[in-house]
Amino acid sequence: MRRILLISAFIAIPGLFAQDQPLTTLPYTPALETKFIDRSADPCVDFYKFACGNWNKLNPIPPDQARWDVYAKLNYENQLYLWGILQQSSSTNATRTPQQQKIGDYFAACMDEAAVERAGAKPLQPRLDEIGALKNTAGLPALLARVHLEGSDALFGFGSSQDFADSSRVIAFASASGLGLPDRDYYFNTDAKSVEIRAKYLNHVATMLRLLGDSPQAAEAGAKIVMEIETALAKASLTRVDKRDPYKLFHKYTRAQLAALTPSFDWAAYWTALRLTPPLAINVTEPNFFKEVEGQLKARSIQDWKTYLRWHLVNADANYLSSPFVQANFDFYSKTLRGVTEMRPRWKRCVSLVDRDLGEALGQVFASRTFTGATKDRALTMTSHIEKAMEEELAQLTWMSPATKKQALVKLHGIANKVGYPDKWRDYSAVEIIRGDFLTDVHRAVTFESRRELAKIGKPVDHSEWQMTPPTVNAYYDAQMNDINFPAGVLQPPLYDPKSDDAPNYGNTGATIGHELTHGFDDEGRQFDAKGNLRDWWTKQDASRFVQRAACVSDQYSQYTVVDDIKINGKLTLGEDVADLGGTLLAYIAWKAATKGLDLKPIDGFTPEQRFFIGMAQWACGDERPENKRLNAITNPHSPNEFRINGVVANMPEFGQAFSCKTGQPMMRQNACRVW
Ligand SMILES: [Zn+2]
Q1: From ligand 1's centre to the CA of 112, what distance in Å?
Q2: Pairing between strand 483-487 and 416-420?
Q3: Is the pLDDT of residue 182 over 80?
Q4: Are 341 and 135 in contact (CB under 8 A)?
Q5: How far apart are CA 251 and CA 601, in angstroms?
Q6: Cα(638) to centroid of ligand 1, in Å?
Q7: Residue 192 vs residues 74, 465, 631: alpha-carbon distances, Å
Q8: What is the dihedral of CA 291, 453, 256, 264, to 10 degrees?
Q9: What separation in Å is there between the alpha carbon of 516 and the centre of ligand 1?
């Protein structure tokens, strides 16, 4: 125990990160650690400070991170472990399985900094030549298809997803994209910081164009063109809050309708270049956006498009090029936008890329070494307890009619629980990896993934598929699959601790399971039925009662300050806030049921109920840089960690009781919100 704390203190000291070493075993931190508690804080006044105050003191944000919290730290430990796997897999002396060979060679190509430096911008040259050879906009579709396959998001996005109306079918999706700033709002916000960021963005685009060989004047003029095109596209893009309404993103077009929407764009040529059979149905998520694409195609010269495409090409590939590109990319996207002071060491960037591009090959090794059947069984048991709690909770709800309750139960029973890793692993044998040619390796791996996505169009849905890799420290609910997914990476201490008793485990992982389950019934998820179809199964009155109860939560969170004068956008974070509240409540009920009749004793001076809530809060210990808070206020549907804890417990009388709080104290809200 003491040694582990020493390790966590050691890795927290900035400057000592250079001594990172690959791990062969993962460190252990208990689900509830009393040393992280700040006893000078009053739990009834600021529970987050009470439960996490000392964690935050012991764990300052490392210079290469924008945020540092329990999830980020566990992710870092996983990365050290994956690094060990990759070092071993990259040794050509060892006997390697085909997967180990693939991930090892990709990692070695990424780590070969000398080769990357020697290559400079040369690997981009074939695509730059193609852009240079464009004579008119008729050549755009084929060129866009090629760069889209390799990961560029220029002008728009094209891929596949489940039909909102029939979740058993996969159809083509054409979506809004094509911006270099993290959100459409960045192009229009008028506050001083936003104006400053736009000026720095212009500089950054010009820097990148200069690195591609433009004169300073040409680069500056080019950056202005990029800004004009992106601003027009941003203006026609939906806000993030609008995008929470699935009806606003569902416009199923025939090919003829799509052609009529964008007569200046030859979709047949685009699909031919993708090697795709022209799809029968295309969900044009934002028709107004494509109207603007049409307007821009008509209005702009081919010279303007060449500039725009060169920027988006170099922006997409900057991280795989030589250091001037990597540095400029870091300076804007990490330093300016997120406040990060140091670049992540190369090994971290390379581990992340293997996870992104060959994630199930790497994850298969990770899961086989770290994830046990016993953990899977316990997580599934906990899930079934929490589903049972939701069932009972639904039955008791006073605001919902029997008709809607019946449908809600069907949906609840239809949720599939996926734990650990996929039943069948992705086969990467078609991806060719060659050491010493990193950018091309990335392009081949990304193209493989793009083609895999496109190949699903017109085929039945594969329910075994995962959207997160096994080492990922995160979880998700998918409304169209109607499944909840918990990768092996998130079922580790301190989040899920096999050595601990139930109270903190239910508070932490139990609340996460409840959170994902509740997503099926939040402002967005409730609009899909048990089969994952967009269909209204609510009576009018129940729907309006839900909206009213949800408004209580969004009003509550909208009052919290993120940083300076920026408040939480409670409409953006509504789904997550409702899930946090519902999830914690469900976990509490499930824990009470699971331990019914047991004589639970206080441990370390805390009652079992107090330990449930401290365990619940200690997933969220951490902090982030002010710049990152600003960015998240615009883009992140999750509230800052502090409010994900205090905002929840302040709505739970069970918490007030556990800590003997008095009416009127901050963690005892009057008119507490409750949805589920
Ligand atoms: Zn969530």
Answers
A1: 38
A2: parallel
A3: yes
A4: no
A5: 57
A6: 7
A7: 36, 44, 14
A8: 40
A9: 6
74-77: list long-range contacts, CB under 8 Å, 24+ apart: 74/473, 74/489, 74/492, 74/494, 74/495, 75/473, 75/489, 76/11, 77/23, 77/26, 77/27
In 3D space, the residue among 363, 497, 492 whose CA is nearest the CA of residue 421 turns out to be 363
Element (H, E) at 266: none
How many whole angstroms from its chain centre is CA 512? 15
Give the tokens for residue 413: 């029973």
DSSP 3-state assignment of 460?
strand
Query: What's the one-letter identity of residue 464?
Result: S
Of the candidates 520, 539, 485, the one whose C-alpha atom is nearest the C-alpha of residue 675 is 520
What pLDDT shows up at residue 93? 83
Q: Which two tokens stand for residue 250?
A: 């569902």
Report the candidate in 72, 70, 65 with the shortest Cα–Cα distance to residue 54. 70
Quote the pLDDT of residue 9: 35
CA of 408 from ligand 1 middle (Å) equals 19
Tokens, residue 261: 């929407």
Nearest CA to 273 among 173, 130, 135?
130
Q: Give the model confidence (pLDDT) of 567-598 as tens digits.
A: 999 999 999 999 999 999 999 999 999 999 99
pTM of the model: 0.95
430: which DSSP letter? Answer: T
